[in-house]
Design goal:
The complex is a heterodimer. Chain A is an alpha/beta fold. Helix content of chain A is 47%, strand content 15%. Chain A has 12 helices and 9 strands. In chain A, strands 5-4-3-2-1-9-8-7-6 form a 9-stranded parallel β-sheet, with helices on both faces. The radius of gyration of chain A is 17 Å and the shape is globular. The two termini of chain A are 33 Å apart. By secondary structure, chain B is of the alpha/beta class. In chain B, the strands form 4 sheets. A 6-stranded mixed β-sheet of chain B has the order 3-4-14-9-10-13, with helices on both faces. In chain B, β9, α11 and β10 form a beta-alpha-beta unit. Chain B starts with 10 loop residues before the first strand and ends with a helix. Classes of the chains: A alpha/beta, B alpha/beta. The complex binds pyridoxal-5'-phosphate. The site of pyridoxal-5'-phosphate has 21 residues of chain B, from α5, α11 and α15.
């Protein structure tokens, strides 16, 4: 059955370079915008969609994503509504979809329901940056794998090689390599030191592919990191675009097409 | 090992842990692997004890409050943390942490602050050690705790306003954590209460435990027995309470009472009474009780007291609440303000408004004439003059 293989694994089997993953916050700028944004991203040629579950206290995020979280919450976004929107998105969109968010809203929803309802809605995996690996292994892993979902862990330039290997061992889709120790949207462009880090990662021959995120905002930075990684993740730059856009359809199209 | 202490995985019962993004993992791991080793080294102990004695002014007195005792028909003692240098218990912890930071080779210090007491205590030890200091403080707290803001600046610290959320302690903590993510290698984050990811709650509790160590010793001298019937302390994040309870946790016949801020009333929608209103959740790196919506969004707390205006409590206290070892009461703004005036006029001590909550709890207790009650007088009221003046009923 075609549907049974996770869309994320299928993507990485088919495409080995320049994978573009785009992050945006659910329910932003308007509550219902989650759906048209996902549709436009697919039309424009993005490869993967990461939808942020808004949270009141996003400690790993800089001002741009903080602001989108606040607006989304003020709009009335919550996890239940987001899963309904994903169902809508799935009526047309075939791209892999990841949900990204802080652990507390997930805990309140209920871990088992979150995993099963996500699967039923057409989600392919999760990125939960403040979920400890031990707790993932205890409470998530079996259910995630039974439901053929993917869980993505972060690594940063300060993550030890030993820990990277361990994270590679529990990962089953790809690894999210944060380009610098920073909150989101804080830095743009890359230093030599960062490039050395990317190079080291690519030479580690990890079992999972890795995508680089944080600091990727345009064609130049996208091209720079995809020399080393299978792809890249764009977040804050895209959120900025959404906030200022008066025509989502053309603006998203231009944004994605200007990257390649 | 005591069931009330943190276990080897960093949990108190089901509460605690380290729920942090990967960018903070190396810092927290460095601290976790080293903090016990460092604080058990003889030269650390010597330096810590010496600074507590000569710089902070410890031991602080355990004072028999004669007129308050007459009023409440019990033997009420006040543990005078208000007499610590900088005016509150907070400095016990900042001395300990800056000595740890030095031994970890850190050059810069960041902190969050609510009432400004922790910020002042941090700025003070940074001046003492010649380290750079940045303190995050909610804009609302900057406005209501002016004198402390200026004290921090005089001491050479940079005070950075947090302008998100309700602009109080929770938001200042968010900003401090973000700063740490962006400056992981040269900076130590001095958290001001028994909150945050493991090992912070345990480390801060250990540094504050000098309070109950002294109480035991002082009571033995005073009444010939180290055990009071009650120990009462206010709870924001819970550091002064953790320190006052610490060495009594296994003495089950000593009743421990934590006092939370009810704000305008527990059910008024403007409150910070976490044990009454909270559910298990994760904020600022640990699993604890947390005031939150059904969707898991953190509810903005409210209290007239900046130091109690926090939507959670430390994981240790969540566990002490769940096990029933500590009984939690709550006190409204008005009750606390009245108690602050009462203590001023019966004992000549103007308490911090945080501390006034602990005093007000006396009214909710049924005491016998020979009950020995120790109230942890966590801080003095100098910083709160403006709030007292605005409240006006004196
Ligand atoms: C005098 C005083 N007491 C109590 C507190 C509350 O903190 P904790 O619960 O950590 O003792 C504060 C916090 O600023 C304070 O300044």
């Amino acid at each position: 059955m075609e549907n049974m293989a996770n869309r994320i694994n299928t993507l990485f089997q088919k495409k080995k370079e320049k994978i573009l993953s785009v992050f945006f916050t659910a329910g932003f700028p308007k509550l219902e915008d989650t759906i048209p944004i996902a549709v436009e991203l697919e039309k424009s040629g993005a490869d993967l969609i990461e939808i942020g579950i808004p949270f009141s206290d996003p400690i790993a995020d800089g001002p741009v994503i903080q602001d989108s979280n606040k607006i989304a919450l003020d709009n009335g976004m919550n996890l239940k509504l987001l899963l309904q929107q994903v169902k809508e998105i799935r009526k047309t969109v075939k791209l892999p979809i990841l949900l990204m968010g802080y652990i507390n809203p997930v805990m309140q929803y209920g871990i088992e329901s979150f995993i099963k309802d996500s699967k039923a809605a057409g989600v392919d995996g999760f990125i939960l940056p403040d979920l400890p690996m031990a707790e993932y292994e205890d409470q998530f892993k079996v259910l995630v794998e039974e439901n053929e979902l993917v869980n993505v862990f972060l690594i940063s330039p300060t993550t030890s090689e030993e820990r990277i290997r361990k994270i590679d061992g529990v990962s089953n889709g790809f690894i999210y390599a944060v380009s610098s120790s920073s909150t989101t949207g804080t830095k743009t462009g890359f230093t030599n030191e960062q490039e050395l880090y990317f190079k080291k990662l690519s030479e580690m021959k990890l079992k999972n592919p890795f995508l680089i995120g944080f600091g990727v905002s345009n064609k130049e930075t996208f091209t720079a990191v995809t020399k080393f990684a299978t792809g890249a993740i764009i977040g804050s730059a895209f959120i900025k675009l959404l906030k200022s856009s008066s025509n989502l359809s053309t603006d998203i199209h231009d944004f994605v097409n200007n990257l390649n | 090992m005591s069931i009330y202490q943190v276990n080897e995985k960093g949990f108190y019962g089901q509460f605690g842990g380290a729920y942090i993004p990967e960018m903070l993992h190396p810092n927290i791991e460095e601290l976790r692997l080293n903090y016990l080793k460092i604080i058990n080294e003889p030269d650390f102990k010597t330096e810590f004890d010496q600074l507590l004695r000569d710089f902070v002014g410890r031991p602080t007195p355990l004072y028999f409050a004669k007129r308050l005792s007459e009023r409440y028909k019990a033997k009420v003692y006040l543990k005078r943390e208000d007499l610590c240098h900088t005016g509150a218990h907070k400095i016990n912890n900042t001395i300990g942490q800056i000595l740890v930071a030095k031994r970890l080779g850190k050059q810069k210090i960041i902190a969050e602050t609510g009432a400004g007491q922790h910020g002042v205590a941090t700025a003070t030890v940074c001046a003492l050690m010649g380290m750079e200091c940045i303190v995050y403080m909610g804009q609302l707290d900057i406005d209501r705790q002016r004198p402390n803001v200026e004290r921090m600046r005089i001491l050479g610290a940079k005070v950075v306003p947090a302008t998100s959320g309700n602009m109080t302690l929770k938001d200042a903590t968010n900003e401090a954590m973000r700063h740490w993510i962006n400056h992981p290698t040269d900076t130590h984050y001095i958290i001001g209460s028994v909150v945050g990811p493991h090992p912070y709650p345990d480390m801060v509790a250990r540094f504050q435990s000098v309070i109950s160590e002294e109480i035991k010793h002082q009571l033995s001298m005073e009444i010939g027995n180290p055990f009071p019937d009650y120990v009462i302390a206010c709870v924001g994040g819970g550091s002064n309470a953790a320190g006052a309870f610490y060495h009594f946790l296994n003495d089950e016949h000593v009743n421990l009472v934590g006092v939370e801020a009810a704000g305008k009333g527990v059910n008024s929608g403007e409150s910070a009474a976490t044990t009454a209103l909270g559910k298990i959740g994760v904020l600022h790196g640990s699993k604890s009780l947390l005031m939150q919506t059904e969707d898991g969004q953190v509810i903005e707390p409210y209290s007239i007291s900046a130091g109690l205006d926090y939507p959670g409590i430390g994981p240790m206290h969540a566990h002490l609440f769940e096990t029933g070892r500590v009984k939690f009461l709550s006190v409204t703004d008005d009750e606390a303000m009245n108690a602050g005036i009462e203590l001023s006029r019966t004992e000549g001590i103007i308490p911090a408004i945080e501390t006034a909550h602990a005093i007000a709890a006396l009214q909710q207790m049924e005491l016998d004439a020979d009950d020995v009650v120790v109230i942890n007088l966590s801080g003095r009221g100098d910083k709160d003059l403006e709030t007292y003046i605005r409240w006006g009923k004196y």
